[in-house]
Amino acid sequence: MKIYDVAFLGMGASSLSTLRLHYQNSSLSIVGIDKNYNSNRNNFFAFWLTDWMKEFDEVIKYRWHNWQFNYNDLCISHESKEMPYCVIKFQEWKNYCLKNFNNLIIKEQNVIELKRLNGHFEINLEDGEKIYSKKIYDSRTPNEQSDKLKQHFLGHIIRSDEVKNKNFVNLMDFRVSQENGLHFMYILPLQSNELLVESTVFSKAVLNKNWYEEKIKDYIENNLKLKNYELVEEERGILPMYAINNQNSENYINLGSRGGATKISSGYAFSFFLRKLKSSQNEMNQNYHSFWDNWMDKIFVNYLENNIRTEKIFKNMVRSLNGDEFASFMMGTAKLNTKLKIIYSMPKLGFLRSFFQSLSY
Ligand SMILES: Cc1cc2nc3c(=O)[nH]c(=O)nc-3n(C[C@H](O)[C@H](O)[C@H](O)COP(=O)(O)OP(=O)(O)OC[C@H]3O[C@@H](n4cnc5c(N)ncnc54)[C@H](O)[C@@H]3O)c2cc1C
User: Fold this and answer.
1) Which of 9, 34, 56, 233 most suits a substitution to test ligand 1, by most atoms within 8 Å of the C-beta?
2) What is the dihedral of CA 10, 101, 236, 315, to 10 degrees?
3) Alpha-carbon distance 8 to 135, whole Å?
4) Nearest CA to ligand 1 atom 5
5) d(CA 222, CA 15)
6) pLDDT of residue 20
């Protein structure tokens, strides 16, 4: 019976990153199991450029120094020379992380059960095969919690000769219908004739795919004023706006979303698990975000839950910060002064209510 040294359950972004950063020159035997290993998934991972992300420069696909927020009555622009907004594509990240790995066995299978035996684990696959490993990294998608707030979205990359490309990102455009939760469009200008147009909603209930499709179509035709365009690619996601606390134990480590990497107020996780991989050798440690950032995020999400139809909290916060301050807040590197500006910008009554509710979680 073969017992691998290391098994990855799920071979998504966090497992790939762990392989690259912790196992690149290792001679251990490694197995990676993913039910969708050969899928054509190719979503973007966005982040503001921080010190710990600079070594991945060669895989950054696009970067922008300017971004905007649009409301019915206001447009706010930010600029950052130091911390541009960057994206990496999933397939390029996968190739980068797996370059030169020859001690990795891949199984495209669904993991249905995991058992701890004496000194190793038994992994049961859907086709009946059993795999054994001394150590487990588990990044299988955590179950969705139906009663909690989520960020859910559908994005279309479109191509059109009518695209007049701008060099700024539209991070949140709230000039769209708000009937099913807080809704905004997220626009990335890609090549000269391509755009990512993403319809994003904050609500407990995820919507049917055709709902987002209609909103994207409507936005392309009525806001962007494009008549002829083609769909090139699509990405879809449901991200938790609540804490996920799966506990690590000896030789069993939860990674990525499952390990609690998601910043609940924004859905960003990618650069946070990379920061942790680069900074900490203690794998049992699950602190992706500081105590203070977690606490602020809880208040923020609680406020959104109580005021689901208003974008006011985003408007106030974004208006109170410059580009560098905003980017640092999003990436968890903000100075105390920036955090105080954010707290001061919050709607006072709603903030206080959310503050007290957050103490009882
Ligand atoms: C479309 C999309 C866009 C995102 N954009 C950003 C962004 O711009 N910036 C950012 O910071 N974060 C972003 N995120 C959030 C986060 O960074 C990603 O979700 C990231 O992929 C999390 O990595 P992960 O390894 O935890 O999960 P995943 O990358 O989802 O990997 C989990 C893997 O487990 C596999 N799996 C699940 N169950 C089983 C099973 N039972 N058996 C075998 N395999 C299984 C899945 O097939 C999948 O490949 C995005 C998420 C999505 C979905």
Assistant:
1) 34
2) 100
3) 9
4) 45
5) 41
6) 96
Q: Establish whether residue 241 lines the binding site of ligand 1, counting it when its CB lies within 6 angstroms of any ligand atom.
A: no
Number of neighbours of residue 140 by Cβ within 10 angstroms: 20
* β-pair partners for 107: 33
Instruction: Report residues of the chain scoring pLDDT below 70.
Output: 308-309, 358-361
How do residues 313-357 score in pLDDT, each as one tens digit?
A: 888 889 999 999 999 999 999 999 999 998 888 877 777 777 777
C-beta 254 within 6 A of ligand 1 = no
> How many Å lie between the centroid of ligand 1 and the Cα of residue 173?
25
Does the predicted model carry a pTM greater than 0.85?
yes
Residue found by looking up tokens 């390029």 in the block: 92
86 CB within 6 A, ligand 1: no
The two tokens of residue 286 are: 């699950």
The CB of 269 under 6 Å from ligand 1? The reply is yes
- 190, 194, 200, 206 alpha-carbon torsion, rounded to 10°: -120
Contact residues for 275 (Cβ-Cβ < 8 A; gap 6+) = 50, 52, 288, 332
Helices (H), 83-171: 90-98
Q: How far apart are CA 336 and CA 325, in angstroms?
A: 11
Tokens of 172: 């949140």
pLDDT at 361: 55
Which of 84, 89, 81 lies closest to 233 in space, CA to CA?
89
- Judge if the beta carbon of residue 171 lies within 6 A of ligand 1: no
User: pLDDT digits over 129-184, tens only?
Assistant: 999 999 999 999 999 999 999 999 999 999 999 998 778 899 999 999 998 889 99
Structure tokens at 18: 């762990």
The rounded Å distance from CA 157 to ligand 1 centre is 19
State how far the Cα of 231 lies from the Cα of 234, in Å rounded to an integer: 8
Q: Are 198 and 185 in contact (CB under 8 A)?
A: yes
Ligand 1 centroid to residue 12 C-alpha, Å = 5
Which of ligand 1's atoms lies nearest the C-alpha of 257? 26
Tell me what pLDDT residue 100 has: 87
Q: What are phi and psi of 258, to 5 degrees?
A: -65, -30
